[in-house]
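hey so i finally got around to running both of the ones u sent me last week. sorry it took forever, my laptop kept dying halfway thru and i had to restart like 3 times lol. anyway pasting them below in the order u listed, first the sequence line then the structure token line for each. didnt double check formatting much so if smth looks off just lmk and ill redo it

first one:
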Amino acid sequence: MKRPVRLLTAGRTRPLPALALALTLVAGGFAAWAGQDWYRAAHDEQAAYAAQRDAALAAGEQAVQNLNTLDHRDLKQGLDLWESSTTGELHEQLTAGRAEFTEQVKEAKTVSTARVLSGAVTELDDRAGRARVMVALRVTVEAADGAKSDKDSRMLGELTRTEGRWKLSALGQAPVGGTSDG
């Protein structure tokens, strides 16, 4: 009597190809989800606005610090930094008064060093390329005799974007404290 030959693999599924197919489908799904998430993040207007806000704040803090730092021993470099940090009317005022200011600082022989304590963007018009910042800083002034004095102040700055870069176009002292009308 002859018996039929049974194959050992008949009726069984192969687990390795099925597992590979399942992992490929899961990886493809994850890639599609991650790609869609990346695309949304890359084209998010809020993210672009936040990036411009951060750029304006960093530039504003640096420019305010630059305009409050000056060493009488290296005036050219300090005043060049002032000019490169500014634009518009503020820039014109600095360049017009440079010679007179140079003489005053050389005579006084002072060294002022500013350090930013904090800053915030108070207004941002990204489309128009204008921003306003408030910067708190500590300015240390060293007199010719070596005496040092610290002064904390709050500055309000206006920034204008020129050639893709934020520059200070106005700078003034922020009011401190409140006033009572009664």
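and the second one:
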Amino acid sequence: MTNDPSRMPAAPLLRRPGDGELIDVAGVAHFFRLTGEHTGGRFAFEEFALAPGTVGARPHVHEGHDEYFYVLEGELTLHTGDGEVTAGPGHLLAATRGTPHGFRNAGPVVARALCLYTPAGYENYFREVHAAVSAGAEATDELLAEFRGRHRTTSHPLPSARSESEPVGTDLP
């Protein structure tokens, strides 16, 4: 998508609570409220939900867009490149281009969060994975890496193994 002014609506766009595109990928319900089609490619906006014990995304790095995560309910365990932090309601994580990140729900309740992508386009990654899985493919690391590569995204290795006594996460203030 490009930032083409001719593709922008002539008036504000109101999205009602049920308006959007639901894309279920590997146990994560991505509900895209706005996609590049709505914003002239400027950004995409989603609400997502993860059940307890669900990995939302293994650590990865985007070279073509930024992601901003805002936690609404529950807790997300966020990978930050060199460790993990636990983020609850009101916490915001800015995963700008080139920064490793990932997320999972290590808590006991469903986690809900918002995610903003700028520029838009990464919603197509979720569409592609969903279509492949719906057609019978298994969401393996190899398959996800193939689709990520199409969207200027690469996997990021986990930090070196910790000792059993070393804490896994740190609570954000």
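quick thing i noticed on the 2nd:
The CA atoms of residues 87 and 153 lie 24 Å apart.
anyway thats it, ttyl
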